[in-house]
Structure to design on (232 residues):
């Protein structure tokens, strides 16, 4: 009997050691980002600063123009844009998936319980016997409580690789949302500045029209006063 217990204990220890050794193995090689040859530096113009301001946060670069209406247009576009809302929702979804992938490496616990109430029929065999007994109660309360725990050992590193992939997707979705935000802000600012440019051109054209009308009036008076010939 002691020999069997020793063998059983040794078998458990051996199984545990094998599980730990296999747990150190991972599926596939570790990801290595590709090496790209980039320039040592880039010539970036200085950020635009509003008059009287020390610096401008590039995350809200449109404030650097000092135009409150431009700032309202850009921020309204980002608040109401559905593509940006979808990108932000994808960021939350990918972060939740990353947390779920990390939780898969941890032990899982489960608890459940139920409460029921039953009434014994007096026509059943138990009811036939019980109704002749003093103080017999037909009503019965039934309680059920249970708990379970499990832990999936990551023998070949599949769960760890899944967690790494989920985290990478979360970072990619975050960068994608930032790219969408920058694009929307740029498009809104470009549309606003185009409108402002057209308004400025229209104001210049109207001033030119008024100058020409004044010139025609002046020449008309000169001809009427016989100061200038009708050729003018």
């Amino acid at each position: 009997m002691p020999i069997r217990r020793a063998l059983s204990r040794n078998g458990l220890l051996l199984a545990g050691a094998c599980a730990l050794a296999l747990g150190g193995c991972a599926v596939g090689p570790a990801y290595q980002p590709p090496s790209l040859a980039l320039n040592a530096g880039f010539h970036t113009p200085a950020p635009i600063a509003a008059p009287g301001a020390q610096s401008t946060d590039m995350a809200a670069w449109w404030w650097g123009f000092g135009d409150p209406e431009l700032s309202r247009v850009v921020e309204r576009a980002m608040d109401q844009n559905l593509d940006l809302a979808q990108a932000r929702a994808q960021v939350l979804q990918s972060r939740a998936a990353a947390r779920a992938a990390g939780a898969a490496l941890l032990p899982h616990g489960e608890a459940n319980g139920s409460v029921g109430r039953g009434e014994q029929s007096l026509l059943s065999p138990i009811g036939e016997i019980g109704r002749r007994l003093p103080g017999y109660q037909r009503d019965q309360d039934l309680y059920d409580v249970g708990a379970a725990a499990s832990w999936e050992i990551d023998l070949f590193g599949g769960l760890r690789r899944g967690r790494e992939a989920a985290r990478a997707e979360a970072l990619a979705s975050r960068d994608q949302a930032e790219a969408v935000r920058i694009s929307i802000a740029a498009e809104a600012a470009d549309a606003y500045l185009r409108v402002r440019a057209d308004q400025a051109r229209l104001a210049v054209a109207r001033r030119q029209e008024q100058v020409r009308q004044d010139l025609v009036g002046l020449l008309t008076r000169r001809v009427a006063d016989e100061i200038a010939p009708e050729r003018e």
User: Anything to note?
Assistant: The two ends are 131 Å apart (CA to CA). Residues 158-224 form the longest helix (67 residues). The chain is about 55% helix and 10% strand. The first strand starts at residue 108 and ends at 119.
